[in-house]
Task: structure prediction
Amino acid sequence: MMNPSGAVAQMLDDEHRASLELVNRIEPLLARRDDAALAALAPALARALEHETDRHFGFEERELFPRLAEAGDGDLAALLTEEHETLRAVAADLLPLLRGGAAAAGQGDAEALRRLAAEWCERVVAHVQKETAALLPLLADLLDEATDGELALAYASA
Result:
C-alpha cells in the first residue's frame, strides 16, 4: 500500500486499512459458513457499515469529490460516488440482518446475510483499492497544507 501524504489522506488510509482488516476477518467465516462466529462479528460489521456509508462517504462526497471535479477529475469523482451508492444499497440490505441476528436465526436469513456480507466485502475491497491508487495520491495536489489541516480537524471532530 501507499504511504499517504497529508493528514486527510492518512486518516482515510487508516479507515481503509480498518475496513480491509474487517474483510480479512469476515471472509474466512463466510468460506467456512461459520454463522456463530459471523454473528459475533455482526456488531462490529454494523458499526463499520454505518461509519463508512455515513461519515466516510459523506466526507469524501462533500469535501473531496467537488474539489476533484474542479481539478478536472470529475470522471473519478463520479465513479467513486457511484461505488458509494452501490455500497450504501448493500449496507441498507445488510444492516437489518446484522442487527436482527440473522446469522444466528433461520437458514434463509443466514443465507441472505452471508450473500450480502460477501458482496460488501468484494465491493469494499475493490473500492478501497481504487481510492488508494487514484484518490489518495491526488489529495497532495488537491489540498494545500492549510486546507488539509482544516479538513482533517473537521473530519476528526465530526
